[in-house]
Amino acid sequence: MLHTNHSFLAGGGEMGALMRAYDWRHSPLGSPDGWPSTLKTVLRVLLSSNHPMFIWWGDDLIQFYNDGYRQTLGPERHPVALGQPGRPCWEEAWDLIGPDIERVMREGASAWYEDRLVPLTRNGRREDVWWTYGYSPIEDGAGIRGVLVICNDVTEDHLLRQRLQQTNHALIETMDDGFCLVELIDDADGRAVDYRFIEANRAFARHTGLVDSVGQTARQLVPNLEQGWVDTYDGIARSGVARRFEEGSEAMGRWFNVYASPIDHPDKRRVALLFTDITDKKNAERALQASETAARAAASQAEADRRRFDALLSSAPVGIVYVDEHGALSAVNRMNRQLWGEHPMSTSQDQYAEWRGWWADGSERHGRQIRPEEWALARALRGEQVEADVVEIQPFGRPHERRTLLTRATAIRAEDGAITGAVAASMDLTDQVDTQRALRESEEKFRTITDAMPQMVWSSRADGQNDYTNRRWSDFTGLSNGDPAGWTAAIHPDDLQALLALWTDSLASGALFEIEHRLRHHGGEYRWVLNRALPVRDEAGAIIRWMGTVTDMHDQKLAAEELKAANARKDEFLAMLAHELRNPLAPISTAAQMLKLSGADPKRIAHASDVIGRQVRHMVELVDDLLDVSRVTRGLVELECEPVDLKSVIHNAIEQARPLIEKKGHTLSTRLGAANVTVTGDRKRLVQVIANLINNAAKYTPDGGEITVCADPLPESGQVKLSVKDTGIGIDAALLPDVFELFTQAKRTPDRAQGGLGLGLALVRSMVNLYGGTVEAHSDGPGRGSCFSVVLPLGVNSTDNDARQREADATLAAHSTLRIMIVDDNRDAAESLGIVLSAVGHAVQVEDSSMAAIARAQAESFDVCLLDIGLPDLDGYQLVRRLGKLPSMRGTVMIALSGYGQPQDIAASRRAGFATHLVKPVDIAHLLAVLDRLVEEARQ
């Protein structure tokens, strides 16, 4: 049993047992009872640890070690090394380890080594053994008493790293890109001034033009190399942050795309460089602007290059797998496991049949399952250089997932060229393929939508360069969609400068672009369009594109302009109408006052009556003109067509216009040789047409002018041409096209001597059109007179061409006496009418409200009722129905009085129960005739 004082040697496995059994009394240390407490404590730690540990104690360096360290010793040293001096035991390696041990014992300085070669004889043969170990002093109050060694045999890890380095070297040698490892060189002040090439691949010389670079410095190869290269690599090495950049070297005459990554090293600052000579690309960029397609391809290639460079320097973005000469998988990296899932470590090429993959390269084999011997690794083991296999795989353990990979593979060869294995690198293209597919689908959808739109759609880059127009643009302009930059050729020259200025402002400010301009149609005409565009911004708010539309608004714009012009004519007409209606009201008011002051003077009464009569007739003529225009424009005029002698029509028209002609002192001459013909038409309307033309000539000809009325035959066409010429103010060329439009008039003098509403010529054209004729106006300009011509078709001759319809003079006597009730809320109008009817012998009662009329009718009976429609309490329609129900009013003739005389107004009166409808102001002769006729009909 172990002595209780030797408890520090308890446990410790085999070595603990050996230490306890060892006879220490004959050793330099003597019995354990007398060992220093420091030694006991360290031995307790040593035996308790599973990590390999070793102790040299005292000047003789007596040796202790645990079970962990025992496993690294051969039979040559175990177990005899226990308790023996160290120098004889490690004589074969003392030149390597002895100086460090002695320095620790002497100075107390610790030492640490990683992956250090210390050859040893083990198991009867000399072996290269790599160690990671450290020496630490064991001290107590008496000083340094021994050395504690903590160590690991890392030979297997070292050999594995060597194999990986060989594999990585083979992989780097397959790259098209240049690769090198550089080491920074400092001057005496610690500033980096150069760098040395430690390693370089075959492509290095092709990309740089530098040969035999390994071992040489950059300035030895390129004496005038810019300092910026040294500073850049020094900054990357010191910061530990990788960097990608493009830089040119004037000394080398080349441009490079470089990915520089810092490399960990215990003593040196090293940087790995992966680069491509892009001199040709840079020269091409300086020489010309690549097309958009080329630019996209270049950007895509640059992005692919970037991914490949990153993959070669880091295992993160690229899956890498190594196989031996039999095809057995020896190692796979993390990314490969992410791509493939739980990949089985196949031990032969036959087991590649477990891998599920399909060709995805767009060739004839696209979609076919990959056979075992077709995988990139299998072909590389046969010596083939696999540059780019595009395949789709199903990862292990993920049956519903597919990934697209780009795989490159190359053989690993020994010095004699024999294939000892292969390496393959796979890049994940799944997102890129999905993105490209989605982009194609999105672009096809966008083009389909824009081509279906009725508007023209365009887009431009952020710099304003147009890059797209839809099919509607080509259909409208006739310009090719393949050349959207040529759009300015279709803009009206007068609009182009303003459009470009606004477009420049919008590009600079990001504001809405909106302008109306003229755009050339493919038929050659220019049409008005609305051009509008908005910026498209990225998440940061930067403008990345402009999207715009062009809308054909030509018809709307012309309609708006026409509406504006018509509105202006309407406003002018209303002003003229107000003036024309006020003119007769003034003398009517004066005459009314005269009647109040005249007493019984018959001459004054007659004069006042004449004034009122003339002015009322003038107002009626104005209203009739308005109604004529309304009826004609709506097609409501009914013509009483019959054979009419043209000459008599002209004479009647001259007679109507003669008062104005004589008033202004005009000379009227006629040339009517062709007027002895017959036309078919409404005599009254034909007289109205010619009278309007003659009156128009008289109005717009200064006093003392000349007016000529001509009739010229057109025998070949069966027509006759009537012309009215004058020496008046003429017509401006701008007004001539619109002279027959409603409310159109020449410029008037302040006193409006010409009068009228601008309706006469509009009525002339409308009436002539009803007869199938034409009318036109001609003038050589202001002050040079005018000529209006009417062409009418000839009618059939008639023996009664001289027959004229004459209205019999209304007589104010010999009428049957009737009982008449007049109902009108305008008391003056009602009583005036009552006075007239009483004067011819009728018995008249006047009421000014519907209720009063009903009360009167209940007390008395009447032969005729004249009812105003617009009564305030009950309107005329309601009143006629109430009166018709009274027994006393059976047989009474109901006559409506109204200021409205449209067909719908007359129809409404008849439906309500009125026998006839008269329009205010009522013509007295006509009213008396109607009364006689209605009474006669009632008696029958």
Topology, pairings included?
Blueprint: H1 13-21, H2 37-48, E1 53-57, E2 62-65, H3 67-70, H4 86-89, H5 94-107, E3 111-117, E4 120-122, E5 125-127, E6 130-140, E7 143-153, H6 155-173, E8 178-186, E9 192-200, H7 202-208, H8 218-221, H9 227-239, E10 243-249, E11 254-263, E12 270-277, H10 279-287, H11 292-313, E13 318-324, E14 329-332, H12 334-340, E15 357-359, H13 376-381, E16 386-393, E17 403-413, E18 419-428, H14 430-452, E19 456-461, E20 466-469, H15 471-477, H16 493-509, E21 513-520, E22 526-537, E23 543-552, H17 554-597, H18 602-633, E24 642-645, H19 646-663, E25 667-671, E26 678-681, H20 683-699, E27 706-714, E28 719-726, H21 760-770, E29 774-778, E30 786-793, E31 819-823, H22 827-839, E32 843-847, H23 850-859, E33 864-868, H24 876-884, E34 893-898, H25 903-912, E35 916-919, H26 924-939
Parallel strand pairs: 25-27, 31-32, 31-33, 33-34, 34-35
Antiparallel strand pairs: 1-2, 1-7, 3-6, 4-5, 6-7, 8-9, 8-12, 10-11, 11-12, 13-14, 13-18, 15-16, 16-17, 17-18, 19-20, 19-23, 21-22, 22-23, 24-26, 27-28, 28-30, 29-30
Helix pairs in contact: 17-18, 18-21, 19-20, 20-21
Structure description:
By secondary structure, this protein is of the alpha+beta class. 38% of the residues lie in helices and 25% in strands. The protein has 26 helices and 35 strands. It has a six-stranded antiparallel β-sheet. It has a five-stranded antiparallel β-sheet with strand order 2-1-7-6-3, with helices on both faces. Strands 9-8-12-11-10 form a five-stranded antiparallel β-sheet. Strand 8 and strand 9 (192-200) form a beta hairpin. Helix 17 (554-597) packs antiparallel against helix 18, helix 18 (602-633) crosses helix 21 and helix 19 (646-663) packs parallel to helix 20. The longest helix is centred in the middle third of the chain and has 44 residues, at 554-597. The N and C termini lie far apart (165 Å). The model is unreliable at 309-314, 748-755 and 798-814 (pLDDT under 50).
